[in-house]
Amino acid sequence: MTSVELGVFLPVGNGGWITSTTSPQLPATYEYNKAVTLLAEDMGFDFALSMAKWRGYGGPSQHWDVTLESLTAMSGLAEATSRIGVWGTVHTMIFHPAVVAKMVAVIDQISGGRFGLNLVAGSNPVDQGQMGLWRDLDHEGRYALAEEWITVAKRLWSEDRVDHDGRFFNLTDCMSNPKPKKAPPIICAGASDRGFRFTIQNCTGSFLLGSNRDDFVKTALRAKELSAEMGRDDFKTYGLFTIVPGETDRQAQERVDYFNSGVDVEALDNQTREYSSDPSLKQNTMANRFIAQGESRNSMSPAAIIGSPETIARKLADIVINGKLDGITVIVPDFIDDLKTIGIPVVEGLREFGVQTNAYQHQHGG
């Protein structure tokens, strides 16, 4: 039996993760995200993660034109919850590591040690450029900045005073108190070999995407291969899955067809244009995935898992087992009713296909 963690990627941007006028028009409000997180906690999910986004893509759906800021949202959710992990996202180009080091220490107190940090080394030039915070660095330079960033943050979590004279950051007799009781789990979604090596060396886990089943497994195994080479047997990999459930496979596909009938082409074109403006696009694996979605005029990830709870569980278990994943992170159209489907019948089905979750044990008294 393979054991995995189970998490939810919160819909902190309006419309959630489907770029369409006919999909559930989710509100980007704290109250909605609190309801989702409390539901996930009640079902035994291990963590809730929020993205960081500063500019939407417009179009008729006004996709992501309203977004919650990640760390303040997770700070509130830390107070509202008691068990589930609360993971927030920061762009290393935007926040100084000394600022985040103190923010993390405070959220560590609020959450009782349940906070996790997701690092983004790049994103797209327009999102951060609108604020004058985009740094014109190539692919290697972005990860060099991120390495310096996390090195400084970790020193501030463990040392009384820090002097640092680096390429990107300079600190003189810098003090940062309080300190977290322990360094938080740190994750990153870099998917190039350079991104994986940064993540394996500096973080505790990696978030993975795939364009289809085989690509998912290949990417996951590559991360494990590199972590073994670098002596990180404790390194975790989390698959990020868009899932559209239905009572039957046919009903689930009908939902997808309906969402695609209202695909917001204008928003997708804006998304494609923004990511295409990256001078290092060739090395930016995540950007190319967004561009591919836009070019295919698909309202959601082409790797979406669609079907009945049994079909979803079977397909998830296949990728988890063959890709040697340590965790599953889910995106769904409706984060209440659909999340209940994932948290109960899909979790039951996963166990039947050889994948155990803490959610199953939680619901069955384990």
Automatic annotation (TrEMBL):
InterPro entries: Luciferase-like_dom (IPR011251), Luciferase-like_sf (IPR036661), SsuD_RutA_monooxygenase (IPR050172)
Record-linked SUPFAM superfamilies: Bacterial luciferase-like (SSF51679)
Domain Luciferase-like: 5-319
One GO BP: alkanesulfonate catabolic process
GO molecular function list: alkanesulfonate monooxygenase activity
Gene3D superfamilies registered for this protein in UniProt: Luciferase-like domain
A Pfam family the protein falls into: Bac_luciferase
Keyword field contains Flavoprotein: yes
UniProt signal peptide: none
Highest taxon of source: Bacteria
Swiss-Prot/TrEMBL keywords: Flavoprotein, FMN, Monooxygenase, Oxidoreductase
Coiled-coil spans in chain: none
Protein name, per record: LLM class flavin-dependent oxidoreductase
Organism: Acidisoma cellulosilyticum
